[in-house]
Each structure stands twice: as C-alpha cells, then as structure tokens.
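Dear H.,

Thanks for agreeing to be a second pair of eyes. The structure we're designing against is below in token form, covering all 420 positions.
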C-alpha cells in the first residue's frame, strides 16, 4: 500500500515517505511476450547473422510497411540518424522550417548537416506546428518543412503539403511519437516525402534503440538504403556518401515482438489515459490533452497542461512535489529547442516569434503511463496531484521556507566547443 497523502505534512517534500518506493518514469518500456523475444534471440545466434540486413530486419520492414500502408520502410539504428539520412537523401540544404517545441534531435538532425533550423510557432491547443505561421518564414534559402507529429497527433498535413507544393519545398515528418496513429483512413507513415519513426525504448513500439524512414517514393527509398549502409552498391563498390544507420537483428527481433503486442499496448495506454482523465477531472487550471478525435491513436503520452495563473501551483512546483514522491513527471519539451545551444546563440531573437511555444513549454508536464503503470499507481498519482493542488498556498509557503530536496532544474553547464 502506498502511504496516504492527506496533509501537506505527508508529502515527501516535507518529510513524509514517498508515495512510491522506486521511481515511476514517463516512457517506461512496453515489453511484449518475452518468450517470443528469447526464441528470436536464439534464432539469431543459431543463424550467426547479427546485422547487415538480416532476415528479422527484412521481416520488420515488411511488417511495418504493411501495417502503415506505405510502400517502403527502411529500418535504421535510431530516428536521429534516420532523420539525418532522410534530410540528406531529400536534398535539403540552407534552411528548413520546423517547430521549436519538439525533442532537440529534430533540430540537431538539421544542424548536424549545417542546415539552419528555422523555428516556427505551434498551435497552443494541439502543440503542433502552426501552418498559418510557416509562409512568413520562407526565404530563398528554404528547402523544406520538417513537421513533428507531437504526442502522436498528426500535423495538419494538408495545409503543410499545400504550402510545400506552392513553394517547391520538400516535406519530412518526425513521426517519432506517432506509430500506429492516423488521420481518417490514412496511417502516419505515408505523408509528405518521407516520415521518420523512433523505436527508442521509451516509444510505443520499441527495438531498444531503433528507427525507420517510411516513404512511397521508390527512388528515395533506394537512396536511403544506400546511404544507411556506407553507400555500398555491391561488395566492393560505393556509389554515394553514406554512413552507418543499420538496425541490428536483435533490435528487429524486439520490434517484431512489440508489433505482436500492439493491441495490448494500446488498450493499456487507453485505459491509463481514461483513468488519469477521471482522476484529474474538474481541477482548476489543469488540462489533460485529449486524443479521442485522432484515428487509432496510440495514447503513448499523458500530457498535462498546468496553467500557473489558474491552478493553485505552477507547473514546476507541482513537478517538484511529484518528483519527491518518486513520480518522475517530465517537462517535455521544455524549454523549446530555440532556448538550447547552439540555437539560442545562433538565433537569439527566436523567442519573439514563438509566443505560443513559450506559453506551452511553461505549462506542459508528462505523467508516467504505459504498461509499467497500473490503475493503482494512477489512483495514487491522481491523489497526490489533487491534494497538492488543493493545498497549493500552503505548499508554496513551505517551499519558500525550505530548501527543496529534489530540485528539478539541473544547473546549466555550458560546454565551450564551437559545433555550430
Ligand atoms: C520527437 C522526437 N524526435 C526524435 C527523437 C529521436 O529518436 P531516437 O532516440 O530514436 O533517435 C525523439 C525521441 O527520442 C523524439 O521524441
């Protein structure tokens, strides 16, 4: 039984025992049928085919392409390298427009190739790139748009692709969060020129580390395959500059095992989302992002918005309460890429054109969910949040008096290397 949290004094922040004996994380991995995984691992060892486009990678690519209704799936070692390869294969150069409210890898994948990320504001309700703000950012240097299907909600692909057609731009989507999600009858995977998935351990489908680029473009797929394998066109010939973006057999074995449990993962995520919604209903200043309007959503994230003006605590104060209870809620994707290096030095004025990003980044808090979290955990987390918000004034006073035991603001350490 978790310790009851009825009074401010019961909070771990002020000396009570934490609600959980060990940490509850956002994105604790979804693990499918471990017997199937171990069988596949035995096969891999028996075959002595560990990487370089083995049978499990081929099967994984075929199954993913089939599930998403897209012609090609090119498996990669992770989504970041996948994005880098796709950006290069698409011929993007100069400047590319993307949201700042995303995981920093989206921007890094561009900057790594000396392409300038131009940050666009988001829609404050969906947290997605706002198509109405894109055109004003287009310059003669712009070669593409990199949309992010944040939290699994597809971007406004119609509006983005209409702009791209009109202005002759390439469109790539970061679909790291959106495996299995769709718009109407269409699944994410076939939008734009290409889409990049992450199969990192924290993602809906995981391969420990992994990713994939999906596309309906045959030539692009051929280039992607070449580029992720050093550019090799045969045993001894190289036709293009390449890198090593290959997925291993063991990663594909985990991916195939994950795919077999998709419906169970969604059912658990959906249940968790519903329980959180019920337990946090009616709290002033608290909004839980809803995905009921998204076709086949994976519900991989439970995203709270804490409106510091209306809720009894600010987002960071609530996070501090939760962390001390071993509830490791995350401020994804605070503070926005434009406020991280090298971008804040390269584009110091970016914040002025990103008011919605600033607002959203100050409100968002992701809560632990997925198959590592059960209904009792959610009840406990919900009770802590409710109690903390009902006692906001007292908590704030005591926080001001005491030195917090669990500061969530990690001191900034500037590394003096010019990588821009
Ligand atoms: C939106 C987004 N893009 C890209 C990535 C990078 O994926 P990977 O870890 O597979 O490189 C992540 C998360 O890891 C992400 O959340």
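And this is the sequence the design step returned. I haven't edited it by hand at all.
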């Amino acid at each position: 039984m978790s310790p009851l949290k009825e009074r401010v004094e019961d909070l771990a922040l002020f000396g009570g025992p934490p609600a959980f004996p060990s940490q509850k994380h956002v994105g604790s991995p979804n693990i499918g049928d471990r017997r199937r995984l171990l069988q596949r691992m035995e096969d891999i060892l028996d075959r002595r085919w560990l990487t370089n486009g083995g049978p499990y990678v081929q099967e994984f690519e075929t199954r993913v392409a089939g599930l998403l209704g897209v012609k090609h799936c090119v498996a990669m070692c992770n989504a970041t390298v996948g994005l880098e390869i796709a950006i290069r294969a698409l011929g993007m150069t100069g400047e590319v427009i993307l949201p700042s409210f995303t995981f920093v890898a989206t921007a890094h994948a561009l900057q790594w190739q000396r392409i300038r990320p131009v940050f666009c504001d988001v829609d404050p309700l969906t947290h997605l790139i706002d198509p109405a703000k894109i055109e004003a950012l287009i310059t003669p240097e712009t070669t593409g748009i990199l949309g992010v299907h944040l939290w699994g909600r597809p971007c406004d692909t119609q509006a983005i692709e209409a702009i791209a057609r009109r202005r002759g731009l390439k469109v790539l989507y970061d679909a790291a969060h959106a495996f299995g999600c769709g718009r109407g009858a269409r699944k994410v995977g076939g939008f734009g020129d290409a889409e990049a998935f992450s199969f990192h351990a924290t993602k809906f489908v995981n391969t420990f580390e992994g990713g994939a680029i999906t596309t309906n473009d045959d030539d692009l797929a051929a280039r992607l395959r070449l580029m992720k394998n050093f550019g090799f066109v045969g045993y001894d010939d190289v036709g293009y500059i390449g890198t090593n973006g290959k997925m291993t057999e063991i990663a594909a074995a985990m991916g195939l095992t994950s795919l077999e449990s998709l419906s169970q993962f969604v059912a658990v995520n959906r249940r968790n989302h519903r329980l959180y919604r019920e337990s946090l209903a009616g709290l002033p200043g608290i909004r839980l992002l809803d995905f009921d309007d998204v076709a086949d959503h994976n519900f991989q994230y439970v995203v709270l918005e804490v409106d510091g003006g209306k809720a009894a605590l600010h987002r960071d104060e609530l996070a501090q309460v939760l962390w001390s209870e071993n509830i490791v809620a995350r401020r994804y994707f605070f503070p926005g890429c434009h406020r991280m290096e090298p971008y804040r030095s390269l584009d110091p004025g970016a914040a002025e054109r990103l008011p919605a990003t600033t607002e959203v980044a100050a409100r968002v808090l992701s809560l632990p969910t997925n198959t590592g979290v059960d209904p009792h955990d959610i009840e406990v987390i919900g009770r802590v949040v409710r109690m903390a918000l009902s006692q906001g004034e007292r908590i704030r006073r005591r926080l001001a008096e005491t030195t917090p035991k669990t500061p969530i603001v990690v001191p900034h350490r500037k590394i003096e290397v010019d990588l821009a």
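Two observations from my side: The longest helix spans residues 262-280. Residues 78-80, 102-103, 105-106, 148, 174, 176-177, 198, 200, 211 surround pyridoxal-5'-phosphate (CB under 6 Å).

Warmly,
E.
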